[in-house]
Amino acid sequence: EEAEAAAEARLAEIRRKKEEKKREAEEKKRKEELERRRKEEESRAAEAAKKAAEEARKENENEKKKAEEESKAAEAAKRAAEENRKKIAMERRMETAALVRAQIERKKKEQLLNSPVSETSTVVIGKKRKRVAVVVPSGDPEGGDPNPGNDDDYIESDTDDDEGPEEPPTSPPKQSRCSRCILKALKCEMVGPGSASCKGCRKSKVRCSLVPDDYPRRSKRTKMESPVASTSSQTIDDLRTNVRDLNTRINLQEEMLRYLILRVRKLEEEKKEEDEQEEESEEDRVKRTGDRKGKGRKE
């Protein structure tokens, strides 16, 4: 009976040890499964954070490129506006020069028509080779050429005799235009009674020849800013503001990325510490179980 009891006790001890090993294996397997899931979750979270940071970086790069393209477009528009303004100014100067040349030609014709006329209605202009003009009574009321640009009224003479200098006109035309404006190739227009200069002189910033020297000068006027330039400068200011906002957003995204990296590192350190603590607790548990077994044996 004692032997049977001892055998049953040994069998019970063996079964208990088997059950304990089985429970330990199941506990270890469960812990490994939990650890694997935790690692997977952490890796997915890190991957998601990395993807979000990459997307934010790409978005910032796209916004930067867009801002650069807008600034380039604004600069191109500004250059085009400046070139257009220069072209318009050049065309106006050419038109003004053409008007001045036509005005000078008209004055010459007026002087020729006001000069003494002979029986044959010719006027001596040259000395060596005479160029005579036929005076047409009906035509321009101002006394000019009725057909401007047409030289059919002018006849070349083959006589090559030497005559004296031409006689001065009996009634010289009254000066009604500024000679400086004509010399500057600008359109001369009087502003009105009591004006210190004409429009052409004001543009060229010279004193009008029709105004006496003791007349007080006008004060300088400030130039108005052109709407094209103001619009371009306003567009450039808006683009600079957008660039500053984009730089601020980029800095914030970089700060967020650094925070995420530090968070991942901290999680890795915590995980490492937990692993070390689990290993130490496992060793302590093994030691405790070994001490219990030894005490049981001693008892």
From TrEMBL:
<keyword id="KW-0175">Coiled coil</keyword>
<feature type="region of interest" description="Disordered">
    <location>
        <begin position="106"/>
        <end position="178"/>
    </location>
</feature>
<protein>
    <recommendedName>
        <fullName>Zn(2)-C6 fungal-type domain-containing protein</fullName>
    </recommendedName>
</protein>
<feature type="compositionally biased region" description="Polar residues">
    <location>
        <begin position="112"/>
        <end position="123"/>
    </location>
</feature>
<feature type="region of interest" description="Disordered">
    <location>
        <begin position="1"/>
        <end position="89"/>
    </location>
</feature>
<feature type="compositionally biased region" description="Basic and acidic residues">
    <location>
        <begin position="10"/>
        <end position="89"/>
    </location>
</feature>
<feature type="compositionally biased region" description="Acidic residues">
    <location>
        <begin position="150"/>
        <end position="166"/>
    </location>
</feature>
<feature type="compositionally biased region" description="Basic and acidic residues">
    <location>
        <begin position="284"/>
        <end position="299"/>
    </location>
</feature>
<feature type="compositionally biased region" description="Acidic residues">
    <location>
        <begin position="271"/>
        <end position="283"/>
    </location>
</feature>
<feature type="region of interest" description="Disordered">
    <location>
        <begin position="269"/>
        <end position="299"/>
    </location>
</feature>
<feature type="compositionally biased region" description="Low complexity">
    <location>
        <begin position="137"/>
        <end position="149"/>
    </location>
</feature>
<dbReference type="GO" id="GO:0005856">
    <property type="term" value="C:cytoskeleton"/>
</dbReference>
